[in-house]
From TrEMBL:
EC number: 1.8.1.9
Gene Ontology BP annotations: removal of superoxide radicals
Note describing how the cofactor binds: Binds 1 FAD per subunit.
Name this protein carries in UniProt: Thioredoxin reductase
Species per Swiss-Prot/TrEMBL record: Cognatishimia maritima
Top EC group: oxidoreductase
Keyword Protein biosynthesis: no
Segments crossing the lipid bilayer: none
Family: Belongs to the class-II pyridine nucleotide-disulfide oxidoreductase family.
């Protein structure tokens, strides 16, 4: 049997929301435990330059997250490298099971599990995942020096990935099913000015094609969304950048969700449909999805949890 640890506030997840909640809950003398989860530091650990976090003209994503972790620890937050696999919300104290065998009991829980990259769900995409198909340019762009690659998508993620990949690739083709992008205008301006990037409008990915042994991508088949015509584009890598889905596995059957699975919170708060359970960051935010808004919600969640616990006493 693993050990059991009790805390007034259990924080699940370690992105900007989780670490900020850790700072505020520690300052409120709640002695929080933060369990980092499958990706310590969250999505920012797979980005490079962050230029829109206040106080930093430019900072590397992983460095920013290390600073946040150190800040939370310095305030007194206990940070544990474990993954919560089960959460019982039916009784208080709430009970969470860790992959390590540790059981965590908590008077309040702050969920900050974030979001993960979405995939298209195609057989050929699955087949070549890790062998030429990726959802993380900063993780894998380095492998495509001097080669041609394609990016699928039309939002901020897709444009940021395409721009980043020009650091390595000889050419980047951005494939989008419509004729205009959803990305911020400043990003679009950078994209259209970059001579290495070609935008292919009104097309969607039909199939990833490649070699069998060794397994590797040699190109993609794309379909025109209006005419149905199929064309082949040679490339060595395919980056799928169609956004993110909230990581709600622990609570999707017990908490109220909306807008495609995001945890619903009361307006102007982080309170979920179960008293004592709070949600912050990309897990609940389907609109802004920024590091700074996640951090702000982490602060709100800690303050909401402090108020809840005070009322229980």
């Amino acid at each position: 049997m693993g050990e059991t640890k009790h805390t007034k506030v259990l924080i699940i997840g370690s992105g900007p929301a989780g670490y900020t909640a850790g700072v505020y809950a520690s300052r409120a003398m709640l002695e929080p435990i933060l369990v980092q989860g499958i990706e310590p530091g969250g999505q920012l650990t797979t980005t490079t330059e962050v230029e829109n976090y206040p106080g930093f003209t430019e900072v590397q994503g992983p460095d920013l997250m290390i600073k946040m972790q150190e800040h939370a620890q310095a305030m007194g937050c206990e940070i544990i490298g474990d993954i919560i696999t089960e959460l019982d919300t039916s009784r208080r104290p709430f009970v969470a099971k860790g992959d390590s065998g540790t059981t965590y009991t908590a008077d309040a829980v702050i969920l900050a599990t974030g979001a993960r990259a979405k995939w298209l769900g195609m057989e050929s995409e699955e087949k070549f995942k890790g062998f030429g198909v990726s959802a993380c340019a900063t993780c894998d762009g380095f492998f495509y020096r001097g080669q041609e690659i394609v990016v699928i998508g039309g939002g901020n993620t897709a444009v940021e990935e395409a721009l980043f990949l020009t650091n390595f690739a000889s050419k980047v083709t951005l494939i989008h099913r419509r004729d205009e992008l959803r990305a911020e205008k400043i990003l679009q301006d950078r994209l259209f000015k970059n001579e290495k990037i070609e935008t292919l409008w009104f097309h969607e990915l039909e199939e990833v094609i490649g070699t069998e042994s060794p397994l590797g991508v040699t190109g993609v088949k794309v379909k025109h969304t209006k005419t149905g015509e199929i064309n082949e584009i040679p490339c060595a890598g395919v980056f799928v950048a169609i956004g993110h889905a909230p990581a709600t596995e622990l609570v999707k059957d017990v908490l109220e969700t909306h807008n495609g699975g995001y945890v619903k919170v009361e307006a102007g708060s982080t309170r979920t449909s179960i008293p004592g359970i709070f949600a912050a960051g990309d897990l609940t935010d389907h609109v802004y999805r920024q590091a700074v808004t996640s951090a702000g919600m982490g602060c709100m969640a800690a303050l909401d949890a402090e108020k809840f616990l005070a009322e229980q006493e």
